[in-house]
Design brief:
It is built from ten helices and ten strands. By secondary structure, the chain is of the alpha/beta class. The strands form two sheets. An eight-stranded mixed sheet has the order 1-2-6-3-7-10-8-9, sandwiched between helices. The protein has a two-stranded antiparallel sheet with strand order 4-5. Bound molecules: zinc ion.
Length: 291
Amino acid sequence: MGKGYDTNLLNRDMEKCLRSPFVKGEVIGVSLLKKPLHLLTIGNGPFLVHWNGGFHGNEWVTSRILMEIVLELLELLDKNEAWNGNSLKDLFKQVRLQVVPMVNPDGVDLVIHGEDKAASYQELVKQLNYPNRTYSSWKANIRGIDLNKQFPSGWEIERNRKPAYPTFRDFPGYGPLTEPESKAMAQLIIKEPADRLLCFHSQGEVIYYGYSNKQPKVSEDVVKKFQRVSGYEPVRTFDSHAGLKDWFIDRYQKEGYTVEVGRGVNPLPLSQYDKNLEKVKRLAFQSLIRG
Ligand SMILES: [Zn+2]
C-alpha cells in the first residue's frame, strides 16, 4: 500500500498553503477525535465552486490530490502565471473556490495507522472491522457510520437496505446528519450553497451528475467538458441516496458531481498516482471555468 496521506501530511501541506497571501484558512468543525476539519478559500469572485475529498477513510488519495492541486494553484497565482491560457488572477476575480480536503480525518488515520491511533475508539473499531485483517476496507468515520450516507435525501432508502448497525462501511447512522463531520459539511453548504459542488471519491473513473432528475440542465454540458479533459465517463443516475451531492442537488437544484478517481481496489496503489493526479487536475481546473 505504501505510505498514505494522513493528517500529519495534511497539516504539513496546510501550513505550506497558509503561507500564501491568496488563500484563507478556516476550521469548520472537528471530528469525533477532535481533529480539525479544514476549509481553504481562494479568490473572491461571485461564482462559488466547492471541492471536497477524503469522505471515506480508504479514499485518502483524494485528499492528497486536492492538496497538491491547491498548492499548484497558489504557486501559479504567486508567479502570476496562466493555466491553459487562462490568467488565474483574472479567473479568481470571477470565482471563489472552497476546498475541504479531508472530511473524515479519523477514518483516514485509521486506514493508514490502524487502531493504535483510535484513542478511546480502539476496542470499538476492532469489533466493527471484523472479519477484515487490516483497515484497508474501512470507509466509515471512527464509530462506524458512513459519512456519505448521512444526508437527508433518500436516507430512509439506504437505512432500509444497508447495514443496520455501525460497521466499516455503508451504515447510514441512526438518523441523518448525526455525525460531527457530516453535520459540519451540511452547515457549510447551508450557510452559503456553492454554485458548483464536486465531491472527490475513489474509484471508477466516472462522474455522477444527477439525482432524481433535479440537476440543472447545465450539468449535462459541464460534465461533458469534464469528460473531455479527464476521460472520465459521465453517469446521470445511479441507485444511490443520502450522499452529499444527492442532497445538494435535491435541495438546491444546483450543479453537483461525484468524481470517482482512478481505477482499482481502494486504497488505490501509489503506482497510478501521477496518472490520476493529471486527470483530476485537468478536471478540477475545468470546474473553475464558468458555464
Ligand atoms: Zn467514497
